[in-house]
Design goal:
Blueprint lengths: L7 E8 L4 H12 L3 E6 L9 E5 L5 H4 L6 E6 L10 H22 L3 E5 L11 E4 L12 H15 L8 E7 L2 E2 L6 H10 L5 E3 L5 E2 L2 E2 H14 L10 E4 L5 E2 H11 L7 E3 L1 H18 L11 H8 L2 E3 L2 H7 L7 H10 L9
Parallel strand pairs: 1-2, 1-4, 2-3, 4-5, 5-7, 6-15, 7-12, 8-11, 9-14
Antiparallel strand pairs: 10-13
Helix pairs in contact: 1-6, 3-4, 7-11, 8-9
Bound molecules: 1,4-dihydronicotinamide adenine dinucleotide and ligand LHIR3OJJ.
The ligand CC(C)CCC[C@@H](C)[C@H]1CC[C@H]2C3=C(CC[C@]12C)[C@@]1(C)CCC(=O)C[C@@H]1CC3 binds next to helix 5 and helix 9.
Length: 345
């Protein structure tokens, strides 16, 4: 009779490992002595100790070889929020996550760590020190958020102590750091087009921005603490820098660090939000004829003009989490890592 080989606890897979967070996670896992199998729709780098599997996570047959002899899987793949493509989000984040769960169960994977998002509870209104027991957004602000909610529910509901399949969800917020393709590049592009002169609202709203290495640290702690007797089974965890900052102070520090002027003039929040909503509707109506992507989407305006910061007390208590890089150091390292985005470069 063939005996099943028990997967090594130091062998793991990172789905979405070619992305911003995924690659930082892979690098840290290698440092900690793991061997890593990366599954992604694209390959963006090569590293010793990493085996790449290129494919779409919605395709179980493509996924299975990447999970062979793996005991721990991190799922941090998602289409970019900026794509605003409902069908793509539903296919990848919902159906694809079902496929990931099935593939994990079939392969004998014991632990699945999902990268969710703190935005699953965000409806465009203030959240101050939000805890994990806040209800999911009833009216999610965009398709990305809507499908991240369904994805998180699927993964947490799949946790089955009897069968030895343990799941946990990490909810980071506003990830930034070297190689981020989103926050700093969009900010600089907006500044270069002369559109970063305005502060939306009174500029006092507090927000969490989380340095990527802290997000990685939270994922690894969650994975290593996940066992049948741990309180984290089937639970979500906020992971932030635990240093809420005014949204516009953070933007200004990054902009000034890169040689651009900080925004100065104030615009009323409701006016900008209404304009962003109208533009979004116009882009939707015109989509069959032409494609244009407004910079100020309703989601971005809501994020820029409201309080949204979260408590990570649960992660501190259950996972022993504590940020490893301060906001000040994170911003300095981020600014330094983008010489090509500096003013005049
Ligand atoms: N960047 C942020 O501020 C935040 C991100 N998150 C979550 O963190 C995770 C990682 O995000 P980032 O690293 O910022 O994004 P990213 O876009 O850099 O990485 C996502 C990766 O997923 C891959 N991918 C997309 N569709 C795929 C498919 N069908 N099959 C296989 N691979 C596929 C992409 O090729 C990419 O490498 C995502 O789940 C995102 O929802 C959560 C909170 C905040
Ligand atoms: C044009 C300006 C008003 C804003 C420029 C910066 C924004 C691009 C970023 C500020 C907050 C960021 C953020 C995300 C994406 C980039 C920002 C909007 C997420 C939506 C990424 C995915 C998530 O899960 C939540 C993030 C919240 C913060």
């Amino acid at each position: 009779m063939a005996t099943r080989v028990r997967p090594s606890s130091k062998r793991c897979a990172v789905i979405g490992g070619s992305g911003f967070l995924g690659r930082h996670l892979v690098e840290k896992l290698l440092d900690r002595g793991y061997s890593v199998s990366v599954f992604d729709i694209r390959q963006s780098y090569e590293l010793p100790g990493v085996t790449f599997h290129q494919g779409d996570l919605c395709d179980k047959q493509a996924l299975l070889p990447a999970l062979k002899d793996v005991s721990l899987v991190f799922h941090c793949a998602s289409p970019a929020p900026a794509s605003d493509d409902r069908r793509l989000f539903e296919r990848v984040n919902i159906q694809g996550t079902r496929t990931v769960i099935q593939a994990c169960v079939e392969s004998g994977v014991q632990k699945l760590v999902l990268t969710s998002s703190a935005s699953v509870v965000f409806e465009g209104t203030d959240i101050k020190n939000g805890k994990e027991d806040l209800p999911y957004a009833k009216k999610p602000i965009d398709y990305y958020t809507q499908t991240k909610i369904e994805q998180e529910k699927l993964v947490l509901e799949a946790c089955d102590k009897e069968k030895g399949f343990f799941t946990v969800a990490i909810r980071p917020h506003g990830i930034f750091g070297p190689r981020d393709p989103q926050l700093v590049p969009i900010l600089v592009d907006t500044a270069r087009r002369g559109k970063m002169k305005f502060i939306i609202g009174d500029g006092t709203n507090l927000v969490d921005f989380t340095f990527v290495e802290n997000v990685v640290h939270g994922h690894i702690l969650a994975a290593e603490r996940l066992r049948s007797d741990s309180p984290s089974c089937g639970k979500p965890y906020h992971i932030t820098n635990d240093e809420p900052i005014r949204f516009w102070d953070f933007m200004s520090e990054v902009l000034v660090g890169l040689g651009y002027a900080a925004p100065r003039y104030h615009l009323p929040y409701t006016l900008v939000y209404t304009l962003a909503l109208l533009l979004w509707l116009l882009a939707l109506i015109l989509r069959p004829l032409m494609s244009f992507k407004p910079t100020f989407t309703p989601m971005r305006v809501a994020l820029a003009g409201t309080h949204h910061y979260y408590s990570c007390d649960r992660a501190k208590q259950d996972l022993g989490y504590k940020p490893v890089v301060s906001l000040k150091e994170g911003i300095a390292r981020t600014v330094q890592s983008y010489p090509h985005l500096k003013q005049g470069a």
